[in-house]
Amino acid sequence: MPSILQCIDCGKQYPIDRVIYDCESCGGLLDVRHDFHESAAELTQEFFDNRLGALEVPYNSGVWRFKELIYPGIDDERIVSRAEGNTNLYHLPRLASYIGVDTLYLKHEGENPTGSFKDRGMTTGVTQARILGMDRVACASTGNTSASMASYAARASIQGIVFLQNQQIALGKLAQGIAYGATCLQINADFDRNMALVREVAERLRIYILNSVNPFRLEGQKSIMFEALQQLRWQVPDWIVVPGGNLGNSSAFGKGLMEMLDLGLIDRMPRLAIIQAEGANPLYRHFASGFKDFQAVEARTIATAIKIGNPVNLQKAIRTLEWTSGVVEQVSDQQIMDAKAIVDGVGIGCEPASACSVAGAKKLVEKGVISPGDTVVGILTGHVLKDPEATMGYHANNLASIDPAFQNATLQAEDDLRQIVELLKDRTVTGLPHI
Ligand SMILES: *Cc1c(COP(=O)(O)O)cnc(C)c1O
Ligand SMILES: [Zn+2]
Questions:
Q1: Ligand 1 pocket, 305 CB below 6 A?
Q2: Pocket test for ligand 1, best of 107, 111, 116 (most atoms within 8 A of CB)
Q3: pTM (2 decimals)?
Q4: Using CA atoms, how far apart are residues 17 and 129, in angstroms rounded to an integer?
């Protein structure tokens, strides 16, 4: 049997080629479901390991290397790929001791073609748009979704339309949407309202939605787990730590891990920790209240990629927390920016939202939830160049209510050799301390 769409709440099924984002009977979210049973014996660690180093499209992609688990049975010619994925899994002993564990890896999804993990979801989402024959795709975005969609839509000669907030959008992200030729619509509304607007407009004008409410996005994003486990030689870490905004990634991770467990690719579940910003913490509150009546919040945080108050994938994220014995933690903007300075300062770098993984892991160690002996894999979701204003503001100490703990202030000098030598004589004068 080929793939189908299935409601996560009532189980109602829909054909894979329906343009539909939630269940007609109960309003629940939809999963893409593949039938692995016939091919299960073939889908071994060796099978996927043998594809490492593939040069040909699409198997040179860190998503499509796992094609049988992502979207089996489709024609390779239809796939819209930029060889996304294949991101580094950095082993970081010094950072590990900073957060208080023996073993820390950071998987850098900012190393994707447009600088965020969204590319892993767009390769599948835009491929599905092409299979469905859609000529326009749209998303509401805090920035990275629009950057990624604009790129992949352009590659497929499909028109991309992005609904952006007219304030607090990171410069690098906005520039990408414009550069890749999408129709950019700045709207006087926050992300959550833009999400509602895009759904209305898409329905009226028959435009395909590529937010993470689209279940094909999550199929691609599952590959972050497949690839991380493959890079760990299929040795399961104790913890995966990921920032949570719209909760697409968290949801995709749960589904991907469950599928790996079912297929015997891994022998146990890691635990998932979802980290939110204090000012955009609806899942954290919901988790802390034992999942009693969910309340959306009005989101406020410097980490704009997770500035979301009413996450569309809430129910799938709750399912993931159950499957993985997961936890949810919150961190302040101060903790986010200090953790970012540390990640940047070891020469790797990330955008503010990504630093939640490190700040959150540190907090969970302090609370005794993560044990010092645990192996932790943190996900860095976006590239350091995405939000230069946040980085510059931190190091110039002009961000409101942030007091930089790791400031790398820029020095000024005249064209004067003596003055320059004088400045640089003191080795501690500037630059970040090496942790
Ligand atoms: C989209 C995004 C997030 C949030 O991911 P969700 O899947 O919406 O929870 C976090 N960080 C970055 C850099 C992002 O682009
Ligand atoms: Zn349903």
A1: yes
A2: 116
A3: 0.97
A4: 10
